[in-house]
């Protein structure tokens, strides 16, 4: 039976959009992307939530630990270890930083220890300049487990998915309106709670797809609905800009759900069309969507390759390689964001392919060695 790769393609498109936005693409494009690209990841994760986990919570938690907590800890510790060394070789410095003028500094021994504790106990403490997207691991980890807990507490009823989503919206509205923080969660919990809402939306959408599969197939054929979704998202990005910023205001909270959900539907429609047409585009996006982990982890480091090229091209100060996430100078006038995107996606995927081939060779060698021994 042919595999439906629609969700994998959705994730592939989403990760590429994330890399584009982090590469300081033209402002209008970044605003459009920020309206929906991170909610899309939570929605696609919720799409695969199964009610069988209500009676097998341990399996669900183990999967979350293996797929989110452990990669976060492993790579956060790695970047913590090399943080000060990055200053020694010039990848980081105290002169150039983010767009707001903030810079990073070498860690003291005490800071290294504190960050290590934060990594293990709170999924925080990661290197902000080299691991800027790592908040997603904590956000999805908390959101998915919170969703399971709430489902168990409320009970397995038809209305439960809708009640959870409504509850998350009410709590996020209260939180942003009053400027409240969940002190036990790094960054205050807004991303985690909104992530739970979008996770629930993904689960609801899956039920909808399973129940009305024939109607959904006809619905996907409409280019007009897809275009309409894109137009609405575009209008929100101009007049009611929002994203999953942890410092979101009440107005930004109110502005997020509609474009986020419509942006997902737009992406899902496009992905469904691509899924039905065999070719290189489908293969690339499917593979990318199935291997988003290493793009999340290494796209910022991969940008540094292009930063070296930009420094050479414009004759900039070599220390600008320390800019986060990319070199800000000329970023809104030139097209270096395209090269940053190619590197941010291509380099991690290249290493992933190489790693897969090495593992395959090792398995073949072991298999042949075992057969010869027999």
Q: TL;DR of this structure?
A:
With 374 residues, the chain is mostly helical. It has helices at 6-22, 27-34, 37-47, 57-89, 109-122, 135-154, 160-178, 190-211, 213-220, 223-239, 250-255, 257-275, 280-290, 292-314, 336-373.
Describe the protein's architecture and organization.
The chain has 374 residues and is mostly helical. Helix content is 71%, strand content 0%. The protein is built from 15 helices and no strands. The model has no long low-confidence stretch (mean pLDDT 93).
Fill in the keyword field for this structure.
15 helices, 374 residues, globular
Order of helices and strands: HHHHHHHHHHHHHHH
Task: Write down the Rg.
Answer: 22 Å
Average predicted confidence as pLDDT: 93
The largest β sheet comes out as: none
What is the percentage of strand-forming residues?
under 5%
